[in-house]
Amino acid sequence: MNSALLLPTVLAGSVLVTVVAGRAVDLLLRRVDARHPETPLWNLLRRCRRVLQIVLLAALLKGACQQIAWPPLRDNAAIVGRILSLALIGAGAWLIVAVVSAVVESGYARYATGTRDPARVRRVRTQVTLIMRVVTVVVAVVAAAAMLLVFPSFRALGTSLLASAGIIGIVAGVAAQSTLGNLFAGFQIAFGDMVRIGDTVVVAGEWGVVEDITLTFLAVRTWDERRITMPVSYFTTRPFENWSRGGVQMTGTVFLHCAHSTPVDLMRDKVHEILHACPEWDGRGWDLAVTETTPSTMVVRAIVTAKDADDLWTVRCAVREQLIGWLVEKHPEALPRILLDPASGAENANAAAERPTQP
Question: Which of 58, 157, 239, 357 has its CA 20 to 30 A from that of 312?
């Protein structure tokens, strides 16, 4: 066959083999998934079909191009071979990451389904996320090194730098000590169970939910949808509040300043009525008591409970708003007032102004 016609034939054959192999693998995984519905692994592996086809196509073209004697292709065989090698290495790294991600995600899904403790689920999720990031970084570094070895000039450069690798490592470690500190702090957070994805924390005077943890930083989503990004070393070197530690249930307080004539018993009954009508109250407990007095007012504290921080905020706001409304409507005398006592000179002036004048 003419070499000019052999090239499109090889290309068409490689594409056809790739498509058929991809469809066959997808059909096989679909049947296995139907037989084993208890695990999502086989369905997740179906996402790797496209990457597998790219790897197979690059391998077929790399092997076939060496057998084609077409002059333009033979003259540029080195360049074409390097391009196909780079594509094969990149697609292979992509395939490895995709397969590992499917396996890890399947294991996490089965663990989350069979575990009722949300704290353990969040801990495993945090560890799985960081493990996947580490695997991705390692595979990317190895793939980049393999791509560099494709070029002969970089091989010589790597040989010459190998002798000074120790000095370069020391210099890099000193220069990037803060980055390395964050890296090790990320592992400490993941496997030390200090903070997990989904935990409610208070950092820098702001409370929010941990949204993402990487090897170097941690993102917290606040209640007003802002994102606070902090280095992970912050959580290993400074104290912080973790409201989800030991359970997400929380107890909160509502303080009101009332007059001394406030009917505390009726107020206590009203709090009980408000809580029973509030769906966010978890029913674990409540209380109302006078905790402090001043010459003009007394401080009434209501204690409420909820299943998490978001519901606790809603319960506190509901109790505060409805109690104030009830006092305004039913017991206005219980609202605090500021009494101003006029001076004696002002009283005499007002009395003289009110006294009728003699004709």
Answer: 239
